[in-house]
Specification:
The chain is mostly helical and about 500 residues long. It has 20 helices and three strands. Helix 1 packs antiparallel against helix 2, helix 1 packs across helix 3 and helix 12 runs parallel beside helix 17. The radius of gyration is 23 Å and the shape is globular. It starts with a helix and ends with a helix. About 40% of the residues are buried.
Length: about 500
């Protein structure tokens, strides 16, 4: 057979695998948005069956043979052109993932899928009831399963670092700790410069649900939403998900007493979706191929944080939008009023509603607790006390209950250990890419003030989105910005924002 034939046969196999994966994602979407509570057990069985089928396809000898054939024929016909290099990179990533899948016991894969579904259901119930003990057995089970997963993978990494690889390929705990060290030192110092601001969630006004949903729709329309390929729904925890090459979905939520939460969550999740919509789609990188997928979750978060923080929380944006909110009943007298409401520079207990300054401390707490749970023997029953202790030490606040504390995030119910640092890395990447954008286009605020959103999106579509998985996150940042990833651009940005805030 020709090289093209082998490549096509492999592509067809990947497409079928991706179809199964998108069915799994569709069930996840339904579970989070529309599924009645009573459907949780059956949904768990559905997801477990699909997980087994996917694992079988991704670890089979047939699949291994297809990759080997494509690799052999690539060696025979490879050149130095861009497409040949892309093919090699695709095969590298496929071989790497094949090795991981072949190392896992199918029973473990099935057990993890069931545990994720059951854990999510119990997390929702425990959060509503403010009852951590209701969720604790599911968390213990998930920790044990993820530890077993790390053991089966047998990578030259610790448990936490191994589990973080799907989110941040090539990440090392040592490099992450070095990157975050300046933040551990300087964020509390910067936080000490801000006093007297409104705490997140402490606004003395609110807007009706329908009004917030309408403002959400206006934002998406202003930012170029194509309703033919996008969908918006409600969920307990906002997220973005792609179900197919022309099927992009986001969720938001309306939180009583937090009239800006839905709006900012929309900006955040739409940033994720814009990135997905901008990923490579040429024939050899189409939806099913690795190069057509996101670089990493940190790069993903950098894109959502750019639109949420650099754009939606900016003063020029407030100048465009404050009157729309005022017309709906928000007690705003100026754009500056709206800008300050959008930037509550004061520590609070909730990560999602946190300001840019304190957000990093929320992440450092979670990262430290994950390491403690997975590698240092922290008992699950001690988690609430440890959570509250660390919040008091780093942020000077203590949650009033576990629903506000260690039950606030969905991630651990699904065993997503190693994901949280992606959020903070996303802040760092967003800041460094924004500096590169500014060097090319001028200050983003100028384009926001002019309403030239497309200028910034087009820059991202040219320099960031099309890279896909051709590079890892650190390589992408260095390629686009011309220097290694550092905490300094983010800290510089925070200092400038604090200066503007305190004037």
């Amino acid at each position: 057979m020709s090289s093209a034939t082998a490549w096509v046969r492999l592509g067809r196999y990947l497409k079928e695998t991706q179809l199964l994966g998108s069915i799994q994602s569709t069930l996840y979407w339904d579970q989070n948005t529309r599924m009645p509570e009573g459907g949780a057990r059956w949904r768990g069985e559905q997801l477990a069956l699909l997980a087994r089928q996917l694992h079988s396809r991704q670890s089979s000898q047939c699949y291994s043979d297809l990759i080997n054939e494509a690799r052999d024929e690539w060696r025979q016909q490879s050149g130095l052109d861009e497409q040949s290099a892309a093919q090699s990179r695709n095969l590298d990533l496929l071989e790497q993932e094949l090795s991981r899948q072949q190392a896992l016991d199918p029973d473990l894969v099935s057990a993890l899928a069931t545990a994720k579904s059951e854990g999510y259901d119990l997390w929702q119930k425990a959060r509503r009831a403010d009852d951590f003990e209701m969720f604790a057995p599911a968390l213990r089970n998930m920790i044990a399963l993820r530890q077993e997963q790390a053991r089966q993978l047998q990578e030259p990494r610790g448990c936490w670092e191994t589990l973080a690889q799907p989110f941040e390929p090539d990440l090392t705990l040592k490099s992450l700790q070095e990157l975050f060290a300046p933040l551990r030192k300087r964020l509390p110092e910067l936080l000490g410069r801000i006093k007297g601001g409104p705490r997140p969630g402490s606004l003395s006004w609110d807007l009706p649900v329908a009004v917030q949903q309408n403002l959400r729709s206006q934002l998406l329309q202003d930012w170029g939403r194509n309703e033919a390929i996008t969908c918006v729904a409600e969920s307990p925890h906002p997220f973005s998900i792609t179900l197919g090459p022309s099927d992009y979905r986001i969720t938001t939520r309306v939180v009583p007493g937090q009239p800006l939460s839905c709006f900012l969550a929309t900006a955040h999740e739409w940033g994720h979706s814009l990135y997905e919509q901008g990923l490579p789609d040429v024939s050899h990188q189409w939806f099913a191929w690795p190069l057509g997928q996101a670089t990493s979750m940190a790069v993903h978060e950098s894109q959502s944080l750019f639109w949420e923080n650099r754009v939606a929380r900016s003063l020029p944006f407030a100048e465009h939008w404050w009157q729309r909110f005022a017309a709906e009943g928000a007690p705003l007298d100026s754009a500056h009023d709206f800008w300050r409401e959008m930037n509550p520079m004061a520590p609070g207990c909730n990560r999602v509603e946190a300001d840019e300054l304190s957000y990093g401390l929320h992440i450092l707490i979670r990262m430290d607790l994950e390491l403690a749970l997975l590698e240092q023997g922290l008992p699950v029953e001690d988690l609430p006390d440890q959570w509250n202790k660390r919040y008091q030490e780093l942020l000077g606040v203590t949650p009033i209950n576990d629903a506000q504390g260690c039950l606030q995030d969905v991630h651990w119910s699904e065993g997503l250990f190693g994901y949280f640092p992606s959020y903070l890395l996303g802040h760092l990447i967003s800041a460094q890419l924004s500096e590169a954008m500014e060097a090319s286009l001028g200050e983003p605020e100028v384009h926001i003030r002019d309403g030239s959103i497309d200028v910034m999106l087009n820059w991202l579509r040219q320099h960031v989105h099309p890279i896909g998985r051709a590079l890892n996150a650190a390589q992408l940042v260095e390629k686009v910005s011309g220097r290694p990833l550092s905490a300094e651009p983010f800290l510089k940005y925070l200092e400038e924002k604090i200066d503007n805030f305190t004037r």
